[in-house]
Fold this sequence. Notes:
By secondary structure, this protein is mainly alpha-helical. 57% of the residues lie in helices and 5% in strands. The protein has one domain (2-16, 32-264).
Amino acid sequence: MKKKALFSYTIAIAFFVMFSGCKGGKPGGGFNLFTVQQDAELGLQVKQQIESDPGQFPILNEANNREAYQIIRSITNDILNSGKVYHKDNFAWEVKIIDDDKTLNAFCTPGGYIYVYTGLIKFLDKEDQLAGVMGHEIAHADQRHSTRQMTKMYGISVLISAVAGDRETLAQITAGLINLKFSRGHETEADNYSVEYLGGTKYNCAGAAGFFEKIGGEGAPPEFMSTHPNPGNRVENIKARASSKGCKITDTADQSRYQRLKSLL
């Protein structure tokens, strides 16, 4: 019965894709075997997989780190309330802090489950920079880049197995998501949307450029950026985008809160 239901589900989605998968005009347009609801379902499954593996993903306990979570959620909410996040009301947009000082990374699963490493928070100097990175990661989920990319990588049967809760497949998908190498087009799109989102906040809308400038000053970029567009080019593109939008490009936010966040970790 399960195989028959899975086959029927596969055919139904394939039929749906024939008529709607390549329509443009909305964020996440282009070929994608998943619906928005299936993005949310896959994200929930991946979240559960991540949080069941504290060895690989040592998530800070919220009860013991309430102030740190208040600050990181305030940054997230500022972005979500910018009026520019298309799927604000469709996805969960939960944020967790991973206690790993050696990793300069953040990622966002389908469905809006956001994970930020302490290593990234401590590496950056300003709240605007972190907001820029978080805007970039939120854009990957909002534009549905992960499921668009995984549609190409895995195909429908693997993705449906993950949504259905197959743990082995989920582990594969989770590892793939965290190390997912987005196309250059997706990276540029996420950079552009980070500017859009921050343009509706108190932050410097080119905040992500500050991250890439910081990375560029450290010599070789981290491994997760090895296939991304050149950081120097991204700085130029982000600043040009910000200038064309006429949004605030100076760091005027009070940085004492960000220094407080770093001291709490």
